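Honest question from a wet-lab person: if I give you the sequences of every part of a complex, can you actually get the arrangement of the whole thing, not just the pieces? Trying it with mine:
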Amino acid sequence: MTLLRSLLRTLIFVGLYVLAAYAGRLTVMDGTNLSLVWPAAGVSAVWFLAQHTSRYRWVDVVALSAATMVVDTTTGASALLAGFFVVANLLQAFVFGYLFRRWLGHLWGGGGDRPLARLHELWCLVAAASISTAAGALVGPTGVWIVNGTYSWPATAVWLTRNAVSILLIGAAGIRLGQLLHHHFTTTERHYLVTGPRAVWAAMPLMRKGEYLAVTVLSAAGYYAVFGVNHGLPLAFTVLLMTVWAGLRLHTGFVIVHDVTFGCVAILFTLHHSGVFATIASHPTRALVVQVFVGIIAVVGLALALGRDERTALIDDLTAERQAAAGQATLMSAIIDAMTEGLTVVDEQGRILLRNPASRHLLGGFVSTSDSPAKPGYYGLFHPDGTPMAADEMPYRRALAGDGAHTMDIAVRNPGVPDGRILNVSSTVLPNVNGNRCAVTVFHDVTAERRHRDELGAFAGVVAHDLLNPLAAIDGWSRLLSEVFDETPDNPVAVRGADGLLRIKRSATRMRHLINDLLAYTTARDATITAAEVDLTEIVTDIATARIDQAKSNRTLVPLFRFTDLHHVYADPILVRQLLNNLVSNAIKYVAAGTAPQITIGTEIVDGLVAVTVTDNGIGIPAGEHHSVFDNFHRAHRTAGYTGTGLGLGICKRIVERHGGTITATENPDGPGARFRFTLPADATTAAAIPAPHNRRRTDNTAQPAPEQGELATMLAAKHPIASSPGAGFEQTARLVLDYLHDEMPLAFWAITRVENDQQTYLYLDADNGYGLRQGDSHPWQDSFCVHMAAGRAPTVAIDAQSVPAYALAKVNQNLDIGAYAGATITEPDGTLFGAICGLDPQAQSTDSRMAGAESLLALLGHLLTTALASDRAQNRAAHALLREQINAETDTLTGLPNRRAWQRLVDEARSRHQRLADPTAVAMLDLDNLKNINDTQGYAAGDAYIAAAADAVRAAIRDTDVIARLGGDEFGLLLPNCTVKDAEIVVGRVYAALAAAGITGSIGWAPITVQDGFTAALVQADTAMYASKQQRRTARSATVRAAAHLGGATAE
Amino acid sequence: MARLLVVDDERDVTDVLVHYLRRAEHEVSAADGGLAALDLVDRHGMPDAVVLDVDMPGMDGFELLGRLRQRHPDLPAMFVTVLWDGDVRARIQAAGAAYLAKPCSPADLRAGVERLLSRGGLDVARSDP
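Yes, you can. This is the full assembly:
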């Protein structure tokens, strides 16, 4: 609340309070200085409720005190007494406010925005009014006693009654009004205060309007008769009737207004010695009686009205619920009746619980006449191959027998369907509401589909058999003929015939391809699509392996495949394989001579579909033909000597279109070649990751129980529009987790860290984190908070980190201000530590309730990242194995080691892995001494032997996972994955030793790769170190030589 | 050298197969259908292995193989056929027979038969009556 607004409200309340207090002080009892009525109590109660949320509520405390002081002293009270009244009023307002917020926190004034609406709320209000009044009464009358010297019990009774009734009456009205004003200012309806009641009034039936009028007029008349005239009859109870009438029949707001208005009327008349209570002689007693009377009227009216409201609301809810249930049931049965699929439900006892009209139709009108299914013979059920179906083979029987869902084709033939009909039937067991299992069987007519499939099969069979068989004869006989010609190479007939024969064979081959493609095309066009979840990575790996094998056995250039983390799709696995195979075939076939094919395959999520791109480095598609390449028999490179049937891409197009996708061809944007891009439906898990409006956003800051992991993954993905597929990789998961933590947790800083080489390195974090930390920054692991968390020495969540001894003593405190800490470990598949999720905040977070559930949430996220890491590792292994397979062909002939090109590929792969996971990795460069010398003095053969010996020695010294490549001449590169600085020192030492043992000298320079500087820097560093070492040894050697010469010794070496 | 029986309804195909197998120094007889094949076996005895087609009028390759194996349960068999249907491949496997796609090269044919004979029987478990 702004200061101005708060002050304005304070001012209004001060005005009201002064008016009320002054009015009250006009009724001061003789000799006691106590007022008979005290409306100010109600005003102050509402005042403190209204201002509780203001930051400037101390102003109200001062204002109330001052107003009380001024009014009391100006109306005859001594300063001391006024002081007591100030304390009494404040105490009363505070206690009331406290109890109200505690018991009625959902109402306006208690922190919520609801009006007084339920019976038990009224009792709470009465209790709060009574207790707060009692608290005030401990001070007020005591003050009078101290000032006057006598304690008046009647005065205390008056105090208790007048304040309690005042708080109850004015409080109820104030809460109502406050809630209305709140609604008025927060709602979008303008002038709600005016239009609201006006609309209610306009919509009201005439009879009801009359009732309002009658209650008002009769109440006025009744109160005048009872309180306005002195007739000596005790007829006060008669006006109670009006309250009961209003309470039973009229709006609660009206009841409150009625209570307040006529309560005031009763009190005012009585104080002016008029009406039924005027006969009571004593002022205090009279005041007490009339206020008790008003209190009773208020409670009765409100109790009746609220009780009625509650009952009405309950009945409305029940009716709505019943209507919704009935609507649902009607809809359900309408759907079941309208379904074209047959639906039956049979319980364990074999009773039919439900059977829809379609069932009867599909079974040709033959349905069981009893309440249980008949034998298969009655319906005329057969297996698709024509054998009759046994009773225990009925799908519902199988499903109930306990082996889960059953789907099968069943042929129906009976007088109702004389031509027969094939039904696809599936039956699933569902637990009934009573725990009784029942089988739900759904079936539909697949006669047309099956017939179509059979026809297609017959067509394909004819094509396959009747065309390929003669072709086999042509092929075989032409081979024979060419063998005959080969036997007589000099015969002129053979020379002339050979050319013709060659053409025959070439045509036969083309015809074979054409027939095979036609068959594939027919299948792609007409076969029923059987969609399932398809792992593209698996299929592409398979195709790539086969192509590499093929290239090796044909001794052609081995193609290079690049792909990682392909999304899963929901499609027909056989057709998808064919699609990718065709595109890969094209990519390999259409390359320039002497170029090794390079094929890059990637996926992304676009509008809920998986978009797959296949990019090659081939000869590309001629300009203007990017669209027509998909036409059947279009052959873009017909003239350039590339063979093809012109159907391959047509097949691709059919397959993609039958899955509801599109396919396009463009130029490769990154170089020569073509790029094909097609879309396929995403599978369920990928689809779940598509951004969708989600309703999980919290409305308050209360901690929620930690979600389950699967649910969490969905939440993360729903919240952050990045696709997360089963193989999404560690990096993507890490970023999702960070985004999620930033959004959901109060800590300012979150990072995913890597622990290696005894350093904790920030692997993933926000660029604008408050600590100024950058990706790649690190500090010693032993100095960190996380080391204690990981060892279990300190809690994973510390809302006040400095109060935990292990954290308070951590050295990292010297660099970072840490008030709150939260962490979780991430482990490798083998259980060793990979790193940690780390959350920090400069401030302690003792008050934020979101920290309450943090421990289990973090443990869960740590587990999620551990799982992601394991899947990432598994994929890396597969990709690495494929890479090793590919570079097997790229070896240096002399040493059998990978050559420079293979080295580049290995470095590229290691670089990309290091960027994502920061696995400790080192590179080393080795340069042999003396090669030139040996070549010059002993010849190149000796030089070659020297190099080969060096390669063997190094290969024997390094670990299995390490790689040595010959980069050229006497220069070698070593790539040491999963290698800490200490490991690297050992490996390099062993390499030196092995070279020395083989009688070879050389220089090695090495460097670890850091997240900060990256791979290229490490390569340069290793190279520089190698040259430095060489230089040093040269200098040392020449120094030795010089020293020896100086001493007159022989020059060694 | 082995005694082989080649069965294919297409005479041109049979002759080519016979030619190549004879050149690989096998003793080869040929039949253009299931009945003729059975008749041949009746007259000249069981071959060491049979090379046959799937689609043949009258009696198809599977039926013929079934009948031959009634007499000689472990008879090695190789289907040389046009494969257009996953079902056929599955049935070939279930029958414990080898398979060669038609059209095939002479080298493949020879190698296939050698493998068949050296294995001395079947590589796939077969449930005989």
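Two things worth pointing out. DSSP finds five helices and five strands in chain B. The beta strands of chain B are 3-7, 27-31, 49-52, 77-81, 98-101.
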